[in-house]
């Protein structure tokens, strides 16, 4: 059937606590995908214990990073909308209630699969304006400045409104106006300020208050809205009403486009009306590959997520991870070595496919993985410099994801972003929304890291009309029988890829249910800096000691690794949704 027809810390004690999975009676997070007959050990002081609520349903499931947006999505499904209808409504709702990452001034990617098995991938990534050159972001000595991270020069041409409109045009079943109505209501009548929003605004107050419209909207009376207060955004409500009435044309051709262009000229930015007129969302062929008999469908470039994950999973497919055990030193070592090699290829080869030829078929092949696997020692860490092909000249976020499945089996995984929290920090005057700072995702000069520490090649060099390389990894996984199994994705910059990959491994290799898979501690490695990051208290003392003995530089991460929003479809069709507790306001709702 087609769419149209339907940061805390504790003392490390080094002790272990068992969390059972693979039970014959479905546990809280739903049935295990495979009955491994094993138990999963989390360190004694790991804070996420599988106790957070999950969503359960048979007719639909929505998982987002904000409970109000989740409710909006479920309401759309219950009103007869399909998964794409719900995704459009959720995207606009998040732009109101989650201004750190929800947006109409950013961009992103969507991967979807219809109930009859058709797949598609939509690229609505931001583009660089026509006037841009690398010299805009280099000082007199040729060293990158901070101009790509904050302020008007950092802004790419937004793609979110075009992306959501294109999704609706091709697959939507409800009226466009009806899908924007919940977001308009939230902006016009307000919502209750959470601790997460208040703290995010307070944490960036010194940066955000540099811009007059940002101060006016988000610091009324000179301070961030207080927890529990009602926060109204009348300017954003009017903007959304225009988009509801005129579609994407309101944003790219009408009054909103004029307001963006005026603010860019006032602040010395590069975006002009012609850049907005020229923007288009693009349908692309998904990256599709097999992992232990399961089919994985993910995003192609200019997202690096699908290719990088495919290479990493193809490498570890040659090892018995289940036999080695979850988060054992050996299984972590092999995952990290796979990540190291996959990120080396990501950073060197990948970019915007409209500008760069990439050997994607080779990178995602089993033959290539075989060669990569042969270079891995089972007991000794590799040297990242031996894989890096981008000379290192200097050593040196906020995204959101949601997953939706409807009763007809249509599924969508959508990740979108402003890049850093609140993007560029600039609110468009009289329009009420933040603009992105996506230019920092480009290579400004090869060998210099971006905000996320990624050192990339000239394949991702900034250029007019080009789309910056991304790590967003919206993903759908099918059972060996071809039936839907998982819908997932994550925020987190470069950590997105490793977070999504580990959740797939958690479910397929270790048989975890939805709740345990999302709660499980994670590690991260992105080639450079050459560090094995782990979440605080996520590895016990003995495991860290073994990894150090293998030659890994084992470092606690200063933040959580990702924020996965996961749906698992059980063999009987029951849907289990788990929102990541690393992001406090998330929720899964089914019916």
Automatic annotation (TrEMBL):
Source organism: Candidatus Kutchimonas denitrificans
Catalysed reactions, as listed in the record: glutathione + H2O = L-cysteinylglycine + L-glutamate; an N-terminal (5-L-glutamyl)-[peptide] + an alpha-amino acid = 5-L-glutamyl amino acid + an N-terminal L-alpha-aminoacyl-[peptide]; an S-substituted glutathione + H2O = an S-substituted L-cysteinylglycine + L-glutamate
Keyword set includes Transmembrane: no
Active site, renumbered: 399 (nucleophile)
GO MF, one annotated term: leukotriene C4 gamma-glutamyl transferase activity
Subunit structure, interactors included: This enzyme consists of two polypeptide chains, which are synthesized in precursor form from a single polypeptide.
UniProt family annotation: Belongs to the gamma-glutamyltransferase family.
Organismal lineage: Bacteria, Pseudomonadati, Gemmatimonadota, Gemmatimonadia, Candidatus Palauibacterales
InterPro entries on file: GGT_bact, GGT_lsub, GGT_peptidase, GGT_ssub_C, Ntn_hydrolases_N
Transferase is among the record's keywords: yes
Protein name: Glutathione hydrolase proenzyme
Post-translational modification note: Cleaved by autocatalysis into a large and a small subunit.
One Pfam family per UniProt: G_glu_transpept
């Amino acid at each position: 059937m087609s769419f149209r027809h339907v940061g805390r810390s504790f003392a490390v004690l080094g002790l272990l606590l068992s969390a059972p999975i693979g039970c014959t009676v479905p546990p809280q997070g739903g049935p295990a995908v495979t009955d491994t007959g094993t138990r999963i050990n989390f360190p004694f002081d790991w804070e996420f214990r599988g106790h957070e609520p999950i969503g359960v349903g048979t007719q639909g499931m929505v998982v987002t990073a904000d409970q109000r947006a989740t409710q909006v999505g479920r309401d759309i499904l219950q009103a007869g909308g399909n998964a794409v209808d719900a995704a459009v409504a959720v995207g606009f709702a998040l732009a109101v209630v989650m201004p750190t990452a929800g947006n109409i001034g950013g961009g992103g990617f969507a991967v979807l699969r219809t109930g009859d098995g058709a797949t598609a991938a939509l690229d609505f990534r931001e583009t660089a304006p026509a006037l841009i050159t690398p010299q805009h972001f280099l000082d007199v000595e040729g060293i990158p400045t901070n101009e790509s991270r904050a302020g008007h020069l950092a802004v790419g041409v937004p793609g979110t409104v075009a992306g959501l409109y294109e999704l609706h045009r091709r697959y939507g079943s409800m009226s466009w106006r009806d899908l924007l109505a919940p977001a308009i209501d939230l902006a016009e009548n307000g919502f209750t300020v959470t601790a997460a929003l208040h703290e995010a605004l307070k944490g960036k107050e010194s940066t955000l208050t540099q811009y007059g419209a940002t101060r006016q909207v988000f610091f009324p009376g000179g301070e961030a809205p207080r927890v529990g207060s009602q926060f109204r955004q009348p300017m954003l409500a009017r903007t959304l009403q225009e988009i509801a009435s005129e579609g994407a044309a309101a944003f790219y051709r009408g009054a909103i486009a004029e307001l963006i262009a005026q603010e860019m000229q006032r602040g010395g930015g590069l975006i002009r009306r012609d850049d907005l007129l020229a923007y288009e969302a693009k349908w692309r062929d998904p990256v599709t590959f097999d992992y232990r008999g399961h089919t994985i469908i993910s995003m192609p470039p200019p997202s690096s997520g699908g290719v990088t994950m495919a290479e990493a999973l193809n490498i570890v497919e040659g090892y018995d991870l289940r036999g080695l055990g979850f988060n054992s030193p050996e299984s972590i070592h092999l995952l990290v070595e796979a990540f190291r090699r996959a990120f080396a290829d990501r950073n060197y080869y990948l970019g915007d496919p409209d500008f760069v030829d990439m050997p994607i078929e080779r990178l995602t092949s089993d033959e290539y993985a075989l060669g990569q696997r042969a270079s891995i020692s089972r007991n000794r860490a590799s040297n990242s410099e031996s894989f890096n092909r981008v000379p290192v000249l200097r050593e040196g976020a906020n995204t959101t994801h949601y997953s939706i499945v409807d009763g007809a089996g249509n599924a969508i995984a959508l990740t979108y972003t402003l890049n850093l929290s609140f993007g560029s920090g600039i609110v468009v005057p009289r329009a009420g929304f933040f603009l992105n700072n996506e230019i920092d995702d480009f290579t400004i000069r090869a060998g210099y890291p971006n905000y996320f520490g990624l050192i990339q090649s000239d394949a991702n060099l900034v250029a007019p009309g080009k789309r910056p390389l991304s790590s967003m990894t919206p993903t759908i996984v099918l059972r060996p029988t071809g039936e839907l199994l998982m819908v997932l994705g994550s925020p987190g910059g470069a950590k997105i890829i490793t977070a999504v990959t580990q959740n797939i491994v958690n479910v397929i290799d270790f048989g975890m249910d939805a709740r345990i898979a999302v709660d499980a501690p994670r590690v991260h490695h992105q080639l450079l800096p050459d560090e094995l990051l782990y979440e605080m208290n996520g590895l016990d003392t003995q495991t860290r000691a073994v990894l150090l003995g293998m030659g890994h530089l084992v470092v606690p991460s200063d933040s959580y690794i990702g924020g996965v929003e996961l749906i698992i479809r059980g063999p009987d069709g029951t849907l289990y949704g788990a929102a990541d507790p690393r992001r406090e306001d998330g929720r899964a709702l089914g019916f």
